[in-house]
Amino acid sequence: MKKKIALVTGGLSGEAQISYKSAVTVGNNVDREKFDVYRIDINPEGWWYEPADGSARSKVNRDDFSVTDNGNQVHFDAVLLCIHGTPGEDGKLQGYFDMLGLPYTSCDAATSALTFNKRYTVAVAAFGGINVAKSMHLFSHTPVSPDAILANLRLPVFVKPNNGGSSIGMSKVNTAAELAPALEKAFREDTQVLVEEFISGREFTIGVFKSKGNTRVLPITEIITGNEFFDFEAKYQGKSQEITPAQIDAGMQQQLEAAAKRAYEVLNCRGVVRIDFIYNTERNEPYMLEVNTVPGQSEASVIPQQVRAMGMSLTDFYSAVIDEAFSNR
User: Fold this and answer.
1) Can you tell me which residues form the catalytic site (predicted)?
2) CB within 10 Å: which end of the chain, N or C, has fewer?
3) How does pLDDT run across 169-205, given as a tens digit for each residue?
4) Is 268 annotated as a binding residue?
5) Which entry of 22, 112, 135, 301 is annotated as an active-site residue?
6) pLDDT classification of 130: cutoffs 50, 70, 90
7) Is 171 a catalytic residue?
8) How far is CA 127 from CA 121, 170, 312, 327, in A?
9) Residue 1: exposure state from Cβ atoms within 10 A (0-12, 13-18, ≥19)
10) Contact criterion met (CB below 8 Å) for 79 and 57
């Protein structure tokens, strides 16, 4: 009998628009001979089951995360999570699914909550021996002046909301005069802000996933952006070049793969994650920037590119990810 899979998309943040695109790619590539897929849209209006035949949506029963389809109550065997941002990437849904004993394809609640907080992520990574940039963690209830920040960090710096993704609210600051507006922009998105020293070098992003208990590293992608940095426009509006597999020598590849695998293990990740790095060519060392525990899966996203570059079909890849979720019960 085929397993019943809830493909959960949407979300409560500005990243929902990316989640819907991811759900299309994932939904089109899940093996329908192995799995029955039910699309669930979580949005500010509620939790909804959207039948594939286009009939009217219906509410999800939040008591047990079941739905009614053609008069039949459906209980799911696992959740295929495609929500970027809250509540699907910050641990909230993971905790809910844990309470129900329902397997899911992302990191667990603790790791999701940790990695959604950029400052806590790099702090734990540093404890694990992974190179990270020097940074400051700011809170809206405890203002810190630009002068005080620049007394601790060297320009240029990146200013970004501490919780969130898709580079929304992020700025690169090259001069002291630019810092205050950048802080104001970031605090409009979050009550916590990370200010991080710029590290020069080449930018890479690496997918890592676990299959049959083995941690596997996908082919590395180099990001070359025409913008000041890899911002929302560069990520999603064609203003960057993504080279997969990256054109790098064997030594650099080995360092980056080892760092990505180490970060995955130190942070106790599950499912497929994407980890961003800067490779500092002066020190010949990779520096971890951040971890995306529910990375974009749209046709233009990096993970599908890397899966294809590895010679694996997306159908086989998503089957492996779902199968691994069952092993975490």
Assistant:
1) 15, 166, 301
2) N
3) 889 999 999 999 999 999 988 899 999 999 999 999 9
4) no
5) 301
6) very high
7) no
8) 10, 26, 34, 28
9) exposed
10) no
User: Quick one: tokens of 260?
Assistant: 């990505």
Distance CA(89)–CA(73), nearest Å, equals: 27
Residue 292 known to bind ligand: yes
CB 136 within 8 A of CB 130: no
Q: How far apart are CA 55 and CA 52, in angstroms?
A: 8
Q: Is 313 a catalytic residue?
A: no
8 A C-beta contact, residue 77 and residue 105: no
Domains of the chain as residue ranges with CATH: 3-105 (3.40.50.20), 113-132+199-327 (3.30.470.20), 135-197 (3.30.1490.20)
201 contact partners, CB below 8 Å, separation of at least 6: 278, 279, 280, 281, 282, 287
Residue 166 bears catalytic tag: yes
Q: What residue type is assigned to position 46 of the chain?
A: G
290 assigned binding-site residue: yes
User: Per the residue annotation, which of 166, 167, 171, 240 is the catalytic one?
Assistant: 166
